[in-house]
Amino acid sequence: MTVQRDLPRKQLEQFERMFYPRSIVVAGASTDERKMGSRWVAGLLGSGYKGELYPVNPGGGELLKLPIYRRLTEIPGPVDLVVCCVPRDRVLDLLDDCAAKRIGAIYFFTAGFRETGDPKWMAVEEEMARRARAGGFRIIGPNCIGVSCPEHRIPYGPSTMVNTAGASGFISQSGGHAGKMAALSLTRGIGFSKVASIGNCCDLGSADFLEYLGQDPKTQAVGMYLEGPRDSARLIEVMGQVTPRKPVFVWKGGRTAAGARAASSHTGALAASASVWSAALRQAGAVEVNGLDELADTLLLYQAVGRQERANLGIICGLTDGGGGEAVLSADACAAQGIDVVPFTDRTRRELLGLLGQVGSVLVNPVDVSQRSGDMDVFERTFELVAAEPGVDLIVVYENVDLLVTFVGQPVCHMMNDVVARAGQKHGKPVIVVSPPGAVDRERLEVEARLTAAGTAVFPSMERAAKAIANVRRHCRRTK
Amino acid sequence: MTVQRDLPRKQLEQFERMFYPRSIVVAGASTDERKMGSRWVAGLLGSGYKGELYPVNPGGGELLKLPIYRRLTEIPGPVDLVVCCVPRDRVLDLLDDCAAKRIGAIYFFTAGFRETGDPKWMAVEEEMARRARAGGFRIIGPNCIGVSCPEHRIPYGPSTMVNTAGASGFISQSGGHAGKMAALSLTRGIGFSKVASIGNCCDLGSADFLEYLGQDPKTQAVGMYLEGPRDSARLIEVMGQVTPRKPVFVWKGGRTAAGARAASSHTGALAASASVWSAALRQAGAVEVNGLDELADTLLLYQAVGRQERANLGIICGLTDGGGGEAVLSADACAAQGIDVVPFTDRTRRELLGLLGQVGSVLVNPVDVSQRSGDMDVFERTFELVAAEPGVDLIVVYENVDLLVTFVGQPVCHMMNDVVARAGQKHGKPVIVVSPPGAVDRERLEVEARLTAAGTAVFPSMERAAKAIANVRRHCRRTK
After folding, report:
1. pLDDT of residue B436
2. Residue A235: its H or E element
3. Quick one: B3 exposed, middle or buried, by C-beta within 10 A (0-12, 13-18, 19+)?
4. Closest residue by Cα to residue B223 from B242, B248, B198
């Protein structure tokens, strides 16, 4: 097992000032509320952030009842974090003021540097990093959306909406993907400790952020989206130190020639062979995932069920009808990921037979409860039986909201989901729900919102749930 | 090329009476509106079905203002189709009445025959088939939900909701999967000519239905869900006759040991090796898909774009922001399916540079339009340029509704989608939309409903769109 190096105290403090700032400056906010910088101020005002907030613009004036300072250096109190939305030709002057003000860190929404391939702007980016080093503060980006810390009510980007707070960290070379993850955090209940859109990484790189999240006691798992970080060698080294204690799930963008071409225009990333990346990630104990949905699914599953080395499933389906096909597809989807759906013991099967009857039933695992649809006692007893099976580590409920709403109606549907939401705690085995889209999608969203609020993880297909389970198990087996 | 045998006239007529019945009997409907048979009657009353409708039950009485006949033979007019919901111990008597009444076909929602493995009920199922043959009519099922014909306002199952009418046929060994497909048909606009849940296939089998759909002029593509049809040899033979003219997309359930175990309880299907099935399907010119979502995506894509032998994509992303990451993921997802995202010609790239600027743009293909977000002229001109590219066969718009609604607002979002919906016809190249879930899912459902109503196919992820494109292309390449 690799020994974890402690992050130097000074660097740790810099990250704490960045994620838990007592004061934030938005440079480039103005009296025009529609401007991007002004939206950032509006977001922080509405998010519940409790610290000081200072708009800065040479034009002065007032924004949302806050005075606009003409220069950073005119602000009376100390400044921990600066959000930069000024045009690219003015960033160097701003950095001098940042040094004079002894800020902690600055992130640059401003773009148009290295990723353009233009030597002039590439040189400016290098000069930015130089000035930050000389000034004793850190840069996030440029060409990024910056950092979010839900616990500290720092939203992601210029928005009042704060991600669900929780124990996953996310480091992303795409601001857009981090934003989409923030959106999924809200609807799917994926809790985040910290999110960082790292952009071009002229100063702080992917390895720095991972090193910090590796030590952060609030972070239990890390997701990463990488295109081609410049600090890849150090990243892999840091990853090797973090993964024995916390899972790191990595989605590598630009794996293909076409993807790498796009990545080069996006963050100026240089392509490395996809297979080299896969080998290095594996060596470092990380688990590679493919796409944002799979990353979100995997973080959600880890949050819901924790370590799962075996992860054999007990599956309950056919909550109204159609359980036969659901049983087959569930078993197939699991087996395709190497996940066992072990037949129930004879005793349990006999009990299920008595409970559900023979006609139209599948009793073997998956169990199809459709013949007694809507009977809460039978439903609860089925849970007890499945949870008591020694071969079952994790219970999956396959729920077709279309049929539930049509046949048993919304009130009974909600009663069944109350049973589902309670079952995990009651029986001591984690329970997740698969709820595929269909005809009554508004009702489905409501069911999912209720389950999510009750702490039950919901997946849109068995294939996706099975993939997430396999990813979590992969981490657990590598780090036994 | 295989020569297509014509279906015998008598058999063709039987199928026409089944899918276009002038009169339907629901055996087992009763005065209790909550009973399954009664729901079937309610469904047909509310669906817009124009033919005669007769509930039958030995108890007599009235249901929803319709007189309930005590016996099938008491009905005055001719009967084309019977829906059977009576208990399994009464089906043989009903079949004798069917023969006397010279019906066309009967389908059995009633279950509990061969799939139970009980010799007694297996024998009853065999006797059912014998009586149908002797009586000159056909059986669908038992253990099925029966047939639907949207054009004739025959809903799927006991429901008033009729699938979107269109040119796809679906043959399913799972009633539940056919129901889910019917649900997706409504929300995603996948048009169906005929849907058949075929159950245990004691008489009509998967090959019979495929033979009919192969000749049906209303059907342009066929989807199938198979567990283990008893007529597999003939099915493969018929498939070989159909695929040179119409694509057949097959999802095989029970491919794995666990799945096969569930399938055996579900429809009594015997497992055959998954690789044998794959080889046979390939030989017959069918395209194998994996799961209901993939089947729905593939039928929708074929409906939207038709034959695509090359299927090179032009991708427009970043409708508000975050286009960089979207460009990388789109290109990667396509390349993973062997779909080319060819760089635009220099001329187009120069025009795009003038249109969108350098800072924050990806111009190579995918093109990221975020720098001029909300500018309809730029958006329309980008479409023109992409559509004019000789290397582009199909245009994909990657649309993040979260950001659209937050930054440009719903009215502008709808304006942009009006451009998208018109673009396909205007530029003579098909356009599809990728719209991933996120934070504003109700607004997203509305956007998708509007696009769907305008005839634009919408997919929830680039990975799924790319898979569907690859499946359609596979069919086209096999049948050049």
Report:
1. 96
2. helix A232-242
3. exposed
4. B248
C-alpha distance from residue B101 to each of A456, B78, B88 (Å):
54, 7, 21
Minimal Cβ distance to B258: which of A335, A440, A460 = A335
Any idea what the Cα angle at residue B432 is, between residues B426 and B433, rounded to 5°?
Answer: 120
> B9-140 and B146-304 share one CATH topology?
yes
Rounded to a whole number, what is the distance in Å from the CA of B333 to chain A's nearest CA? 8
Question: pLDDT tens digit string along B81-114?
Answer: 999 999 999 999 999 999 999 999 999 999 889 9
Pairwise CB contact (< 8 Å): B174 & A254: no
* CATH architecture under which domain A146-304 falls: 3-Layer(aba) Sandwich (3.40)
Mean pLDDT of chain B: 92
State the ipTM, two decimals.
Answer: 0.91
φ, ψ dihedrals at B167, nearest 5°: -115, 15
**What would the pLDDT profile of A437-469 be if each residue is shown by its tens digit?**
999 999 999 999 999 999 999 999 999 999 999
CB A59 within 8 A of CB A21: no
Map out the domains of chain A as residue ranges. 9-140, 146-304, 307-478
Compute the nearest-CA separation of B273 from chain A (Å): 13
Across the interface, whether the CB atoms of A327 and B265 are under 8 A apart is answered: yes
Greater pLDDT, A338 or B7: A338
d(CA A438, CA A463): 16
Structure tokens, B233? 């040899």
Q: Is B212 helix (H, G, I), strand (E, B) or coil?
A: helix
Say whether B439 and A187 touch across the interface (CB within 8 A).
yes
Rounded to an integer, what distance in angstroms lies between the CA atom of residue B189 and that of residue B459?
A: 11
List beta partners, residue B226.
B252
Q: What is the CATH number of domain B307-478?
A: 3.40.50.261
Question: Around Cβ B432, how many Cβ atoms within 10 Å?
Answer: 23
Phi, psi angle pair for A49, to nearest 5° = -65, 130
The mean pLDDT value for B212-219 works out to 97
State how far residue A74 is from chain B, nearest Cα, in angstroms. 31
Nearest-5° Cα angle at B55, B52 to B58: 145
Provide, as residue numbers in chain B, all residues whose Cβ is less than 8 Å from the Cβ of A256: 331-332, 335-336
Tens of pLDDT along B328-385?
999 999 999 999 898 999 999 999 999 988 766 677 899 999 888 888 999 999 999 9
A143 contacts B360? CB cut-off 8 A: yes
Place of tokens 């590679």: A288
Query: Chain A residues with CB inside 8 Å of B328's CB?
Result: 174, 227, 253-254, 259, 262-263, 266
Structure tokens at B437: 């879930």
The closest CB to that of B265, out of A364, A461, A463, belongs to: A364
At the topology level, CATH places domain A9-140 in: Rossmann fold (3.40.50)
Does the distance separating the beta carbons of B291 and A333 come in below 8 Å? yes
Q: How far apart are CA B394 and CA A272, in angstroms?
A: 29
Query: Which of B192, B198, B329 to mutate: most A Cβ within 10 Å?
Result: B329
Mean pLDDT calculated for residue range B222-228: 94
Q: For the CA atoms of A392, B225, B472, B424, what is the dihedral angle to 10 degrees?
A: -100
CB contact under 8 A, A174 and B325: yes
B146-148 and B192-197 beta bridge pairing: antiparallel
Q: What's the token pair of residue B42? A: 């309610």
Burial class (CB in 10 A: 0-12, 13-18, 19+), A435: buried
The reported pLDDT for the residue numbered B110 is 93
Q: What crossing angle do the helices spanning B292-305 and B462-478 adopt, rounded to 10°?
A: 70
Residue of B nearest to A266 (CA): B324
Contact B329 A183 (CB under 8 A): no
